[in-house]
Specification:
Elements lengths: L1 E9 L2 H32 L22 H14 L8 H19 L21 E4 L7 E2 L2 E4 L3 E6 L9 E10 L2 E9 L17 E6 L3 E5 L4 E3 L3 H18 L5 H35 L2 E5 L3 H4 L6 E2 L5 E2 L3 H14 L1 H14 L3 E5 L23 E3 L6 E3 H16 L7 H8 L1
Parallel strand pairs: 8-11, 11-14
Antiparallel strand pairs: 1-5, 1-7, 2-6, 3-4, 4-5, 6-7, 8-9, 9-10, 12-13, 15-16
Helix pairs in contact: 1-3, 2-3, 4-5, 5-8
The chain binds zinc ion.
Length: 421
């Protein structure tokens, strides 16, 4: 079983300087390697590989730079720029690996035929982490960690590292002027298993996540939506506005930039804390948790433009949708559901995603279709007379869907995600 723990680091001045300089060197290396890949792509991706013109100055097609070639070529970087000798070799190799990943996501379509956008070069301060892919088992000594080529760095161990887990990889991250360390830990002795629980009406709870209230359970427990981002939105807007008025490279700009990133960081921390507490509450009280299989990315998409016959753009209510999108993203459902899934797996409980189709439109009492719009907050069924809150109705439907399905096997998508994590 694998798990990740993150701690705050307290590097001394010298160590912080090393961190900074490594980040900058990694950033330059990243941009250089990415440029090698992208320039090859722009010059050679054309399927025509020969030209009928005799005297042309087109460069002959060259080999595509690949992971191994680039990794070998790190030697040249070290010869040309001796400062690369100070960076741990595996950290540099990891930079090449990151380039490989983003490039492949850009050029090779996934199973749905979709590719990611073109990877961007990183500006100063945009490259925020470096990774040690292998760590010695005894690297952690009390509240210090022994990093290769850097030495013992103090970390704030706010919770103990679980017994029996071994250190695999380590990433140093800079977040809003502070340094953090992510430790990937593995315990091979704990097998990955899915508990053998059969969902029944007694042990199962269905949850419906929403924007109005963060979630409603099928037992009609309502958890309010704290709307962290919405609360700080004005302050963020003001900071952003002030920042845009300052001169590039000025002290004030740097100062405001720090403030802005601190605020964003705080919002993210508050949200994560809330997610953990809510997930714990659910896992403590229920054996099986059913939730909708949400595609948050699709839900928070922009509205397709409407164009009339003359090519003019018609109103498409994008501004309303933008407001909803902000609220959807502010909820952070994906993060919550992944926290919930992991927490449930650790506690030997079951957390299963069900198909979301029809959960809000069907009546939980008589299973007939009761069409309603997003603004209709109350479910009243004309067929059986059931009258209840819309979200509660959806939560009951989610619960029923899971109980009726019964076969919760290894092929369940979310369970698989836990297995792979
Ligand atoms: Zn009904």
């Amino acid at each position: 079983m694998k798990t990740t723990y993150q701690y705050r680091l307290r590097p001394n001045k010298r160590q912080a300087q090393i961190f900074e300089s490594w980040l900058e060197l990694c950033r330059k290396q990243y941009n250089f390697r990415l440029d090698e890949r992208l320039s090859w792509w722009s010059e050679n991706r054309c399927p025509v590989n020969s030209c009928s013109l005799v005297s042309c100055s087109i460069a002959p097609p060259r080999e595509q730079p690949n992971y191994y070639e680039q990794k070998k070529d790190l030697k040249t970087s070290k010869q040309l720029f001796p400062e690369y000798g100070d960076v741990h070799s595996q950290v540099l190799q990891n930079v090449v690996e990151r380039v490989k990943k983003v490039y492949e996501r850009y050029t090779v379509p996934d199973k749905n035929g979709k590719r990611s956008g073109k990877p961007r070069y990183k500006k100063v301060g945009r490259y925020r982490s470096f990774t040690f892919p292998q760590m010695k088992v005894d690297s952690i000594q009390g509240n210090r960690i022994n990093l290769p080529k850097i030495g013992l760095v103090k970390m704030i161990v706010h919770r103990p590292i679980p017994v029996g887990f071994q250190l695999k990889t380590t990433t140093i991250v800079k977040k809003a002027e502070h340094w953090y360390i992510s430790l990937v830990l593995e315990d091979v002795s704990i097998p990955e298993f899915i508990p053998d629980i059969i969902p029944t009406a007694e042990n199962t709870v269905g949850i419906d996540v929403g924007v109005n209230s963060f979630l409603v359970t099928s037992d009609n427990e309502v958890i309010k939506n704290p709307r962290w981002y919405r609360k700080s939105e004005k302050r963020l807007a003001l900071l952003q506005q002030n920042l845009s008025k300052t001169k590039r490279g000025s002290r004030r700009r740097r100062h405001l930039g720090k403030k802005l990133s601190k605020t964003h960081n705080k919002i993210a921390n508050q949200r994560r804390d809330f997610h953990h507490k809510t997930a714990k509450l659910l896992v403590d009280n229920h054996e099986v948790i059913a939730h909708e299989d949400l595609a948050v990315k699709n839900m928070s998409k922009r509205v397709a433009p409407k164009i009339d016959d003359e090519g003019k753009y018609l109103p498409n209510n994008q501004s309303q949708k933008s407001g909803l999108n902000k609220s959807i993203i502010d909820c952070g459902w994906s993060q919550f559901l992944s926290i919930l899934t992991v927490k449930a797996a650790k506690a030997g409980r079951l957390c299963v995603a069900v198909n979301p189709s029809g959960t809000s439109q069907k009546c939980s009492n008589c299973n007939q279709d009761v069409p309603k719009k997003l603004k209709d907050r109350w479910h009243s069924c004309p067929h059986c007379g059931a009258s209840l809150d819309r979200d509660l109705n959806a939560a009951l439907n989610v619960k029923q869907k899971l109980i009726q399905r019964r076969s919760v096997g290894r092929h369940d998508r979310n369970a698989q995600a836990v297995l792979n994590s």
